[in-house]
Amino acid sequence: KVLSHIDSILQSPRAPPSIFRPSKGPVQNYIKENGQGCGFEHLPLTIEMWADQLIALKDLHRSLRKLSLELLPWNTKHLQDNRESIRVEDLQLIVDAILEELEHKEKNSQTQSLQTLSAIVSHFQKLFDVNSLNGVYPRMNEVYTKLGEMTNAMRNLHELLELDSSAPPTVVVDTVGKLCDIINKNVTEQVQQLLGTQDIHSIINKLEEHESFFPPFQALIQDLLCLLEISNMDDILPAVQNLK
User: Fold this and answer.
1) pLDDT, tens digit, for every residue of 140-169?
2) Is 208 within the bounds of a domain?
3) How does it assemble (predicted)?
4) Count of CB atoms situated within 10 Å of the CB of 94
């Protein structure tokens, strides 16, 4: 009866085809009542292999539970079953839940990435007054070129003003302003020395006197040049002396 029961199980369509192996020798075979070889000599080894696989199945289930707790700490529905026997279906449920969550995360990540990129492009358009998407790349190139020019200019100013390369632009501007003040002060002092006065009102008077004197003097010189038929002002005095 046991052999008949085993035989019916092994001949089931669900049984692996490699379980039943017909015997090749009359000595090694178990004999059924009808005298035919049963072919179950290798079955103990197969059962031992199955037992090892069932133990490994428990270890795999334990590992998948740990992985699921790491990836899906909020989803413990399929982790509450502490049955002694583990089925392949139990493992498949855990794997399916992990795959579903990963696909959901990947989809959300792609959607968020597209939204982020769209927001970046819109912000660039607002900052640099770009009306269409076609104008984004040209304006990017323009901004890059201008940035390079300003960077080179700031680097040259740092070197000319003997400033540290880490000095901010405000320091550069302040230094240039101080230099301009010094230059303007020197120019004012030179003008004061040239005109022989230290008072700004006196400078204004001197300029007014020059403005009132110079035009008549220039007209007189032009008349003398015409009368004496000469073209150089240095020749006026020798020409007048010759007239004497």
Assistant:
1) 999 999 999 999 999 999 998 888 888 888
2) yes
3) Directly interacts with tubulin-gamma; this interaction determines centrosomal localization.
4) 20
